[in-house]
């Protein structure tokens, strides 16, 4: 049986809140990106290349679900402006591995910082929480909710990708 909200408006309200939350979540980095002449596609590429150094073009295409043409345009901008470098794979010379430069790492951190601040503030602002409370339980709950929004057949791949980052850190 499919889960149902007690009132249809509850579901619609939740969807609406997701739209508004996403709008504001991306607005902070959008302002920074605009100063550099970049957009959200640049942010997404920079985020994943920063988090997963050595990511292949094929892996990035799979993560972002965009065309090779779209990725090439964005990558060209980031490479030309010195934020990302592309290297040939050592075991497979056909592979192109992506890495952030020092400038790219700093830029990715600047963009992440404003989003992390917003998420942390939202977790702290939950009813019954204080600014000094451990955010562990709230963070785990938020991660569980967001993972549940991902298509069931995609969750294992997302977990594997994120575990790869955890091991590298």
From TrEMBL:
Gene3D superfamilies of this UniProt entry? Winged helix-like DNA-binding domain superfamily/Winged helix DNA-binding domain
Name of this chain's protein: Transcriptional regulator
Annotated HTH marR-type domain residues = 11-167
- Keyword annotations from UniProtKB, A to Z: DNA-binding, Transcription, Transcription regulation
Q: Which Pfam families match?
A: MarR_2
Q: Which organism is it from?
A: Methylobacterium gnaphalii
**SUPFAM superfamilies registered for this protein in UniProt:** Winged helix' DNA-binding domain
Query: Which domain of life does the protein's organism represent?
Result: Bacteria
PANTHER family of this UniProt entry? TRANSCRIPTIONAL REGULATOR, MARR FAMILY, TRANSCRIPTIONAL REGULATORY PROTEIN
One GO term (biological process)? response to stress
Q: Which InterPro entries match?
A: HTH_MarR-typ, MarR/SlyA-like, Tscrpt_reg_MarR-type_CS, WH-like_DNA-bd_sf, WH_DNA-bd_sf
Against SMART domains, the record matches this protein to: HTH_MARR
